[in-house]
Amino acid sequence: FFSFQILQNYKTDPKISRFLQNLDLYVLPVLNIDGYIYSWEKDRLWRKNRSPYENGNCYGTDLNRNFNSSWGSVGISFNCSSDIFCGSGPESEPETRAVAQFIKSKKSDILCYLTIHSYGQLILTPYGSTTKPPSNNEELMQVANEAAAALAGKYGTSYRVGSTALILYSNSGSSRDWAHTIGIPLSYTFELRDTGAHGFVLPAHQIQPTCEETM
């Protein structure tokens, strides 16, 4: 939806035109392609990739616990059968390595990193592995609170703002934390609608409003 709106309206929407005149956007619609396909064909709520482990008797790493940021320290599992298996090592997965290599190649130009998940209606700041705030926490919180206010202005949807460890749960190896630790100042996770009534299986009629309010 985001990419479609940009491509369709950049010539006619003054806000989008100004935005693109001043910023470059790098958009990765789906990181976990193999897992995404598997979720449609076999297991609707599959979250990991499809890397084989244990001689093919076990599959998948949680890519959002596989980045090289306090990897393997908290909120993970070393058991391959777990949904939160963090892999055999930091960046053990090809998807994680590809993203990390690309971002590092552009690091000096990147101001903000966003990773989009569901669910919970949260805007999460670093870190997940510790409750100690980043050095620029005041800036992170200010930007996130302004984003939450703007988002609520569309349909009244309320998003909570805070660090992962403080308002959600502890975890390590996330792409958000990793992006911040390598020097990207503004790094966030958006946990989209809803707050639990439907969870991961959001009704179809809520999908477009979710896109519109977070645009």
TrEMBL record:
This is CBPO Carboxypeptidase. The gene is Cpo. Pfam families: Peptidase_M14 (PF00246). Belongs to the peptidase M14 family. One of its GO terms (molecular function) is metallocarboxypeptidase activity. Keywords: Carboxypeptidase, Hydrolase, Metal-binding, Metalloprotease, Protease, Signal, Zinc. One of its GO terms (biological process) is proteolysis. It comes from the Eukaryota. Residues 1-215 form the Peptidase M14 domain. GO terms for cellular component: extracellular space. The active site is at residue 191. The keyword Hydrolase applies. The keyword Heme does not apply. It comes from Regulus satrapa. Its cofactor is Zn(2+). InterPro entries: Peptidase_M14.
